[in-house]
Design a protein that fits this description.
The protein is mainly alpha-helical and 107 residues long. The chain is built from four helices and two strands; from the N terminus they run ββαααα. A two-stranded antiparallel sheet has the order 1-2. α3 (44-62) packs antiparallel against α4 (84-103).
Length: 107
């Protein structure tokens, strides 16, 4: 007969933990994690991150920024600029993804 490593009680067959120790150890896994609501995600840091990402993304996608910024995301591979609506949509998607990722972090 084997013994439980936590409480020392005798275990039948080939068990490695008794029921009490198993329940105590793995009780946290049964709890479902609650998703954050939009109001909990809407903090000053996340809003500023969204606005900054949207602004820089729109400027990068819409205008030729190689002359203005030393950091160009695409280097010399970009040959044409996006129309205004497309640049705004692409910047919005990029900013939304960054907002979602940043707000999903636990603090």
């Amino acid at each position: 007969m084997s013994r439980c490593p936590d409480c020392g009680c005798y275990l039948p067959d080939s068990q490695t933990l008794c029921k009490g120790c198993y329940d105590a150890t793995y009780a946290e896994l049964d709890r479902s994690t609650r998703w954050k609501s939009f109001q909990e995600r809407l903090t000053r840091t996340n809003v500023l991150l969204f606005l900054g990402t949207f602004t820089l993304g729109f400027l990068e996608f819409r205008f030729d920024t190689r002359d203005y910024f030393p950091f160009n995301l695409f280097g010399s591979y970009r040959y044409h600029l996006m129309p205004t609506k497309t640049a705004a949509l692409a910047a919005f998607v990029l900013a939304s993804i960054s907002f979602y990722v940043e707000s999903g972090r636990r603090r």
